């Protein structure tokens, strides 16, 4: 049976934890402007009509400079007071390597942490270091944006 693996990346932040979390919670549409080297385009899909993240809301994210790599995610758990949201990847390029992939964002004063849990399709599939690097880079861009 395939094993669930877990990796995380912690990004130090100097901006307000509440403001940082709000970008992901209510203002994800700003990500292409805040982090253009990482997020090419983001759109609401599958009947989702508000940018405010709620359980069941879905987005399609195109990332990298050419916007060719993409994924669709769904919010599966959200705790705004705790500044914590969990997303499940439903489809996209990364699913060539993983049977399941979910990411949890937790923001505290001084730190934005992404934890990913994944099941590889087989042992030769790569760890999701590429995606963790992207998440860390987006976090740094959000922090810089909010400090302006």
UniProtKB/TrEMBL annotation:
<feature type="domain" description="Bet v I/Major latex protein">
    <location>
        <begin position="2"/>
        <end position="148"/>
    </location>
</feature>
<comment type="similarity">
    <text>Belongs to the MLP family.</text>
</comment>
<dbReference type="InterPro" id="IPR000916">
    <property type="entry name" value="Bet_v_I/MLP"/>
</dbReference>
<dbReference type="GO" id="GO:0006952">
    <property type="term" value="P:defense response"/>
</dbReference>
<dbReference type="InterPro" id="IPR023393">
    <property type="entry name" value="START-like_dom_sf"/>
</dbReference>
<protein>
    <recommendedName>
        <fullName>Bet v I/Major latex protein domain-containing protein</fullName>
    </recommendedName>
</protein>
<dbReference type="Pfam" id="PF00407">
    <property type="entry name" value="Bet_v_1"/>
</dbReference>
<dbReference type="InterPro" id="IPR052006">
    <property type="entry name" value="MLP-like"/>
</dbReference>
């Amino acid at each position: 049976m395939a094993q669930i693996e877990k990796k995380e990346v912690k990004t130090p932040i100097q901006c307000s934890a509440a403001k940082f979390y709000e970008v992901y919670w209510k203002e994800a549409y700003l990500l292409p402007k805040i982090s253009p080297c990482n997020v090419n385009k983001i759109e609401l899909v599958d009947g989702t009509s508000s940018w405010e993240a709620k359980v069941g809301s879905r987005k399609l994210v195109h990332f990298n400079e050419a916007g060719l790599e993409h994924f669709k995610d769904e919010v599966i758990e959200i705790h705004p007071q705790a500044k914590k949201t969990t997303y499940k990847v439903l489809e996209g390029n990364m699913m060539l390597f993983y049977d399941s992939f979910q990411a949890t964002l937790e923001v505290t004063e001084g730190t934005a942490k992404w934890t990913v849990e994944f099941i590889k399709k087989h042992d030769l599939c790569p760890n999701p270091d590429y995606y963790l690097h992207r998440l860390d880079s987006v976090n740094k861009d959000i922090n810089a944006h909010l400090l302006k």
